[in-house]
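Dear support,

Our group has been running a series of protein-ligand predictions, and this particular one with nicotinamide-adenine-dinucleotide is the one our PI (initials K.S.) wants archived with full inputs and outputs. We had some confusion internally about which version of the output was final, so please treat the block below as the authoritative record. The input we submitted was:
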Amino acid sequence: MFQSLEFPKEALIGKGWRSLPRRFPVVSPATGEAVVEVADCGSEEAAEALEEAVAAQRAWSQATAYERAGVLRRWHDLILAHEEPLARLMALEMGKPLKEARGEVRYAAGFVEWYAEEAKRVYGETLPSQFPHKRILVRYEPVGPVYGITPWNFPAAMVTRKVAPALAAGNSFVLKPAEESPLTALYLARLFLEAGGPPGVFQVLPTSDPEALSRPFLEDERVRKLTFTGSTPVGLKLYGEAAKTLKRVSLELGGGAPVLVFADADLERAVAETVRAKFRNVGQSCVAANLILVEEPVAEAFAEAYAERVKALKVGDPLLEETDIGPLVNRAALEKVEGHVQDALARGASLVAGGEAKGLYFAPTVLLDVRPGSRIFREETFGPVAPIATFQNEEEAVARANALPSGLAAYLFTRNLSRAFRVAEALDYGIVGVNDGVPSTPQAPFGGVRRSGLGREGGRWGLEEYLEVKYISLGL
Ligand code: NAD
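Confirmed final output from the archive:
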């Protein structure tokens, strides 16, 4: 069915699509076969895109907010109209099960809709002066041009969550998508042009060499903002590089979320939500549950019901309607998952579901009695493995959650309102889901503290990341 589907495979630079003799393969993790060869951009294309971005920024920042909002609104409508090909493209290039991929397209479109609306609400301010002949004005101006780097795990939503607010604020944007998933990004760019987006405002440069491609953007003084979503080690490196030209920086980095299930929780709901929080996108989500802590009196009942649900998840071809669990993205991902399971078992955990691999498919797995110190508790697994351990009281649960290195998302389940507030406030995380396993939504601030990064995406906070403040002092 994909043979008949047309999708862009070239780079989008300046005025249009650029076919390059250098290409790299996009490999389907489900079949191991190359889907297509994509244009492989290098420093020459980067230098050209950079000049185009600088030129496009000038015109786009002078377009009215209503014009920018109009383009974003039309882009949103086209993304929704192309839900099916976009979902299939994601299933093909990075193995996301089709029904989840459709949900991601709607989620991705939601950011474009939200920022189409917000584009018109970038208000300035006037402040009272202590002098009668002075006026104090504050304006918000676009910070850019912007250079953005996205990961493969949400190939559509991680793009729109950055590009839509940046464009709404009047910036041009050069995107470097992940090597594993450039096709979804290119398809989104085609829809942007169809929506009447001016050439040069949004450019997409696929590459097999992210470091070399990024260098000109990081080194150039005129690129005023870097936005990155990906792993903490790469984020740290880029933070250092961007510091040399003092760029504004947003970093959405690794997670590894704790889940605290208290004995007073609605257990059925806690089980259902924690299955979603763990197994969405085959566990390859930055807000995925990584450590499930259950209060001792309900631990056995929770684990039994949890394992039951996990065993019912359907593993299979991501392009099939019924599939819940597709393949992992590549061999390195599979090896990490296997390593975490073996380490936990060697330290005394017991396996109650899954545990076996076939190709890049890893069966949804539940481990009980996982011992503190196990790798799976210290590192982001990024795969379909749920480790369950117990705790004795609230203080211990919060302390164990806050001892983890990342601070992106945490979850807690309780029916006690006082406890819900107390624990949510005590957790040292950027996002807390209370009786909710999927808190991400376009209007809310998404982002982490500690080793999970800097800045927020979504809502008005996501727009502020792309705005500079100008103060005008006016003497009458
Ligand atoms: P990664 O850091 O390996 O790659 C992310 C992106 O960075 C890719 O586009 C890659 O090409 C690029 N990159 C890699 N090395 C680079 C370099 N030296 N210079 C410039 N660019 C470089 O991460 P990944 O494995 O693709 O993604 C998974 C990670 O992303 C996980 O840790 C996950 O938690 C995190 N993530 C975070 C969020 C969030 O919002 N906090 C969202 C999704 C994923």
